[in-house]
Every structure is written in C-alpha cells, then in structure tokens.
Amino acid sequence: MFEEFAEDTRAVIDSALVEVGQRGDQRLGTEHLLLGLLHVPVSPWARALGVSLATARRTLDEIDRSALAVIQIDISRVRLGGTPPPATKGIPWTYAARGVIKHAAEEMVHRRGRSLEPKHILLGILESRRPDLASAVLDQLAVDRTAVRNRLR
C-alpha cells in the first residue's frame, strides 16, 4: 500500500506515528493522521484546514479529558513521567484510519492521480463522522468541511 504514497504523504504518516508515541497510544487513528497533516503549517493541506497543530492537540486533549470525566476519572492532577516510547512503523492502524486511507485512494483514482497525496488523506478525514476522534476535533473547532474541500480542490 505505501508504495503508492507521495513523499509528502510518507512524511505525514511519519508525523502521525510521532503523535502516536507522544500521546502514548497503542494504535494509529484518524486523530493521529489529522495531527500528522498539521506538522507542516505552511503546507497547502494545513492552510486549507486553517487549524494549528497546537490547537488541534489541545482540542484532542480536551475531548480525552471530557470522555474520562464521564466515567469519573479526573486526570487534572496526574503528572506524566518520562518520555513515551516512539511509535514504530509496525504499529496497528484503527479501522477508521484504514477507512480514511481507502477513501483517500478512491479520491486519488477519481482525480486521476498517480500517487496518494496528503490532500487526499485530508479529504478522507473530512468524510469521517462522530464518534471518530478526528471528526470530533473538527466539529469542536467548528471547521467548515465544505469550505476546506473547496480550498483543496
């Protein structure tokens, strides 16, 4: 699958893996792909989204805290120690993240592209809906998905 990825796309996936490691997660999800897209703020796809990496991370953290609060877990006083281990390329992907890549590949074929580009991944993420975490982040940040699609096209 990865042989059809553009160089920029490989960098996005590598950045998503960095996010997996930093968050201490066990699988790469759509939220990691979203954060990976934002690692290069001057990229056309990050500019089209109009959200900073720091803002998206903060929003994702708020969503996590809210979800934990529902089951009466308060992590406000928890101090994380040490640096989480970096994620490896062998880390499993969530079903939703694989679905984003599938949608991105369909978008690439539809546009007669030769390789899967980051904009295709973003278009795939824009199709996601709650309870997907990337979708929750976009919703909480009031991202206009139609406007982002138009800027990408």
What does this structure look like?
The protein has helices at about 5-25, 30-35, 45-50, 55-70, 95-110, 120-125, 135-140, 145-150. With about 150 residues, it is mainly alpha-helical. The chain has a single domain (about 1-75, about 90-150), classed as Clp, N-terminal domain (Double Clp-N motif, Orthogonal Bundle), CATH 1.10.1780.10. α1 packs across α2, α4 crosses α7 and α5 (about 95-110) packs across α6. Keywords: Repeat. This is ClpA/ClpB-like protein. It comes from Nonomuraea polychroma.
> Distance between the terminal alpha carbons, to the nearest Å?
24 Å
Order of helices and strands: HHHHHHHH
List low-confidence stretches.
Answer: none
Shape: globular
Strand content bin = under 5%
State the CATH topology: Double Clp-N motif
Radius of gyration, in Å, reads 15 Å
CATH superfamily: Clp, N-terminal domain
User: What's the pLDDT, averaged over the residues?
Assistant: 89
Q: How does CATH name the architecture?
A: Orthogonal Bundle
CATH class term: Mainly Alpha
Keywords: Repeat
Protein name: ClpA/ClpB-like protein
InterPro entries: Clp_N_dom_sf, Clp_R_N
Domain Clp R: 2-153
